[in-house]
Structures are given as C-alpha cells and as structure tokens.
Write a structure and sequence with these properties.
By secondary structure, the chain is an all-alpha fold. The protein is built from 25 helices and 2 strands. Helices cover 73% and strands 1% of the residues. A two-stranded antiparallel sheet has the order 1-2. β1 and β2 form a beta hairpin.
C-alpha cells in the first residue's frame, strides 16, 4: 500500500473538480433532445471525434491487459488488437461514408433501413438488448475491474469500495453531460492518459538502465522466450504454435467480428460528424493513434516489469505488474498524475459505453416499440434512467471477472459469426434480416457452449472466461475456437439467407438511393438508373491498402526505433511514406 502525498491529492482533486464542472457546463446543451444527448447535434469536427474514438478504447483495463499479453506471451500477442487495422482502415475509406450517409442515431437503426417487416423489427430489438446489456456489461465490468485492480495494488483500497466509488462518479458525469460532454472531455482524458503511460514507461526503462541495458537483462531472464521481443512469432503450423495463432489473427479474426464494418460506438461518432469528410478524417486519425501511438508506452513498461518484477505474489495475474510498477517507481506528484491518467481513461470508456448502450435502449426499443410519440424531455429522462440501470448492473458483473484479457477474447468470440454479414449487407442485395439473426445467434450459442464445456470440465476450479476447454491434449485458445465458430456460423447464416425471402425491392431501392454502395446490387440498380454507386472502387481498394501500410509502418517503425533497431525503423517508416501516397490522393478526391 502507498500513502499519497499532499501534492498527489491536489492533482486528483483538481481533476475531479474540473470533470464535474465540465459535466455541469454541458448538461443543458446535452438535455435538449435525443440527437443532442446521443450525437451532439451532428455538428462535431474530425479531430474531436477521432480523439474521442481513441480515448474510448484507452480504458483503465487496457494497459493491464497488454502487460499480461507481453509477460505471458510476448510483444507479438498484441496482434490480437493489431489485426483490427485491416478492418479499421476499411472503415476509414468505405464504411465511414456509408454510415454518415445513412444518418442514423445508432447502427441498429440501419437494420430497418436495410431490411423490412417483422424480422427486421425483431432483429433491431434483439441487437439493442444484446449489445446494450450482454455485451456492454462485460465491457463495463472489465473496465471497472481494471480500475479496481489499480486502486487495490497502488493504494490498498478494497476492490468493492473502488468499484462502487468509480461507478458512482462515472454515473454522475454521464447523467449530466451526455454525448457533448463525453466527446469534448475525451480530448482532455486522452492527453492525460497518454502522459501518464509515457511517464511510467520512461521511469521503468530508466530504472533498468536504458533500452540497451533492458534488452541485455531481458536476454538473461529465465522468463523471456524467443518470442518475447518478436513482432511476429516463430514456430510452425502446429495447432499449438504461436505462428499458427498469429496467422489466424491476421487472416480470419479481423473480418470475423461484431464491429467488422465500423463498431457501435465508432459508428455513433461517425454519425455525429459534420459531414462525410469529417467522418472519414476522424476515423483515419483514430486508426493511426489507437495503433501507432498508444501501444508502445505500455509494451515498454511491460518489458521492464519482467526485469524489475520477475516474481509476483501468489494469486496475482501478470496484469497486476502494471499497477505494481506505478507504486514502485513514481514519487509525489507523478503518482497523482498517473492515478488521474488512469481515472481519465476509465471515465472516457465508461461514459462512452453508458451513452452508447442507452442510445440502443432508447432509440431502438423505447422510441421504436414502447413510446414512439415520446417528447424530447421524456426521451432524455428515459436515456438517463437507462444509463443508471446499466451502471448498477455493470458493477455487479465486475465482481465476477477474474482476468481482463480473457474476457476480451470471449467478447470477440460472441460476435465473430456476424462479421461477414455486416460487411456483405452493404455489398450484396440478397442479405436479409434472417442472415444477421442466424449469424449472431449461432455465434453467441457456440461461444457460450465453449464456456459451458469449460465449466463442466473444471468444476469448482472454473474461473469465468479464464478456464480453457480441453479436447484431448489440446486446450482450445481463441484462435482454435475461431476456426470452429466462424465456418459453422457461416454455414448457418448462408442457409438462412437462401431459405428465406429477399428484402422487398422498394426497401432495397430506398436504401440504395440513400447510401449508394457498390458491389452486387445489379437487380436494385436497374430500379434506380439515376443513382451512381460510388462505394467500392479501385481508388477505395488502393487507399485501403495504402492505409494498412501507413499504420503498420508507423506502428512497427516506432517500435523498432524505441528498441534501438534504427535500420529496421527506417525501412518501416519508408513503408509508411509509400502507403501515405494513395491515402492522401483518396482524401483529396
């Protein structure tokens, strides 16, 4: 346990007071109507929205999970996050424009623009409950868990007290500020969170004697394997080889995900942009910052922890090493700033997910099915009621999570089967509501079946989302489950699509006119001869490939630079410059 200095308390007090003041300042603007509360009146510029996207993914749990990945597997295991670059850059140059043209409040609202009839209405309600409750509670739970772990490791605060206090403060702010407050304060939260992570990384590396000394000491550590410092793991194609897992990450998992066409809270920000140009620029800044900027301070701190904290206390997971470094290395003032940065990251993600989840329950359930004639005031009151209820239930879930990283993997598995449908619904007219229903249902059921099997096998030793299912001598990892889950779900939703009637032509024509996608829309395009579909083109594909090269070049170039490999860094930065050319050309076009 660490006793905070007066300077630390002053830093924390100023942050909390400033946060409350901002919430009060935005409360009136956010409470005008549902569009103001959930989308800030569709008036936000790209740099605020893009930074808000980054801050949302920068939660108190993220540095802990990355630390666990590096200590347990190596740098390469962060490909579980890095593989999303392929889908994220596609969202920049393609889906961001589609979502802004659709002019929806939530991505679920698109369902009844794209499909028709009772299946569409049922799907809209089901996905609203699924993402606002089942999915969102796990995410909110692991964010609360991460914040509680830091409070316990650094300050000795009981985790229950930490969860309740953090949830209460985040709830107060979310009720006051709405989406206006969330996105504007996200800029401040991101700056604080990055400052804190950089300070800790610098302090940890300095304690090891610098980068060269850190690498030398890692080479002598019994905890370090050949893959610890590798960006791409070695090995063969055996089911338990690291390289085989890496291949599954980059060939399957980026398109087989519940956010394959943008992601729920990202779509909320695209929809809040001033226009298509701002939506696209915001998403590009997000993809660069979330991958090339934020990872390396955590990775360096994790590597240093292998030297400075080679042995953790019994019962502590590898994720605990990050807050333990904070306690050991940071003095008065800096520790307070680091705690503030953690709480800022926590607040950003919590408030985003509360606002996003409430937007589903209000826009896709309350206004659609329960009270379509609700006034603007009634709508905002309903939104705040939903925010409060979600926060209470998320706090309960937090007490049952044992490992943040494994919860990440389970959430991916639950939505893996729906990814191909989400992409194809923009490009193939034959996709219908039953396609999504079959894909999501099969994905959830198979993921839960894996978890139930683990619970039955392990009995009293079972830990939620952390106990693997063993078949023969093989403990199933997420990559094994992906190779079972994705093909099975694909067969189910294709059968459902072909066995059910297509969406009526008038609804498809209406959607085609509004969004103007490309791809396999010929039967519908004949009904709309005046519409030019400018979605999928050669320019889009080149810009996507260039964006992938740009982001990966910056990501790995910065990593090589920080680890002292200047020649490799120069080559990777050169790759980034090559990728920048088609990106700039597309942005200008």
């Amino acid at each position: 346990m660490t006793t905070l200095h007066l300077v630390d308390w002053l830093v924390i007090g100023v942050y909390l007071a400033g946060t409350v003041a901002l919430g009060v300042a935005f409360s009136r603007r956010a409470s005008r109507d549902a569009t103001s509360y959930f989308l800030a009146g569709r008036s936000l510029p790209w740099w605020i929205l893009g930074t808000s996207m980054v801050a949302t993914t920068f939660a108190a749990d993220t540095p802990l999970a990355v630390t666990g990945f590096v200590r347990d597997h190596g740098i390469w295991f962060n490909w579980f996050g890095w593989h999303y670059v392929l889908g994220q850059t596609l969202a920049v140059f393609l889906f961001s424009r589609f979502w802004r043209r659709a002019e929806v409040v939530t991505d679920n609202e698109l369902i009844e623009l794209r499909y028709a009839g009772k299946p569409a209405a049922a799907l809209r309600a089901f996905k609203a409950f699924y993402f606002a409750i089942l999915y969102n509670f796990i995410v909110l739970g692991w964010v609360l868990k991460g914040m509680a772990t830091v409070a316990e490791m650094v300050l000795g605060i009981d985790p229950t007290v930490a969860v309740l206090a953090g949830a209460g403060f985040a709830l107060l702010y979310a009720l006051l500020a709405g989406f206006w407050g969330v996105v504007v304060t996200d800029v401040l939260q991101f700056a604080l969170a990055m400052a804190g992570s950089i300070i800790l990384a610098v302090a940890a590396v300095a304690r090891c004697g610098g980068i060269a000394a850190l690498k030398a000491r890692l080479a002598e550590s019994p905890l370090v394997t050949a893959d610890t410092l590798a960006f791409v793991p070695g090995g063969g194609l055996g089911l338990e080889d690291n390289f085989f897992r890496f291949l599954v990450f980059i060939t399957v998992m980026w398109w087989a995900a519940h956010n394959a066409d943008g992601g729920g809270y990202l779509i909320q920000r695209m929809a809040a942009a001033r226009n298509e140009r701002h939506a696209r620029a915001a998403t590009l800044w997000y993809v660069i910052a979330v991958n090339a900027v934020r990872y390396w301070p955590w990775i360096l701190a994790a590597l240093a922890s292998l030297v400075l904290l080679p042995a953790l206390a019994e019962g502590q997971s590898s994720e605990a090493a990050y807050p333990l470094l904070m306690r050991e290395l940071l003095g008065p003032g800096l520790l307070g700033l680091m705690l503030v940065s953690f709480f800022a990251a926590f607040m950003s993600t919590i408030d985003t997910h509360l606002n996003w989840g409430a937007s589903y329950l209000v826009n896709d359930v309350y206004l659609r099915f329960l009270r379509p004639q609700a006034t603007a005031r009634e709508t905002v009151v309903a939104a705040k009621f939903c925010v409060g209820g979600m926060m209470v239930l998320a706090a309960v879930v937090a007490f049952y999570l044992t490992n943040i990283g494994t919860a990440w993997l389970f959430v991916w598995a639950m939505g893996a089967g729906i990814g191909p449908v989400l992409i194809l619904r923009w490009f193939w007219w034959r996709i219908n509501a039953w396609s999504e229903i079959a894909a999501l249902s099969s994905s959830v059921l198979i993921a839960l079946a894996f978890e139930v099997g683990s619970a039955v096998q392990a009995g009293a030793a079972y830990r939620l989302f952390a106990t693997p299912l063993v078949i023969g001598d093989l403990a199933l990892g997420t990559h094994h489950k992906a190779l079972i889950l994705v093909p099975a779900s694909l067969l189910v939703w294709l059968a459902a699509t072909l066995a059910t009637s297509p969406v009526p032509a008038p609804r498809l024509a209406q959607f085609f006119r509004r969004v103007r996608p490309g791809g396999a829309w010929r039967p519908v395009a004949r009904l709309c001869p005046d519409v030019v579909a400018d979605g999928l083109s050669r320019h889009t594909v080149l810009a996507w490939l260039g964006g992938v090269a740009l982001v990966y070049g910056l990501l790995f170039g910065l990593g090589k630079l920080l680890l002292g490999d200047l020649a490799a860094a120069a080559l990777l930065f050169g790759l980034a410059l090559v990728g920048l050319v088609p990106v700039v050309r597309e942005l200008r076009r």
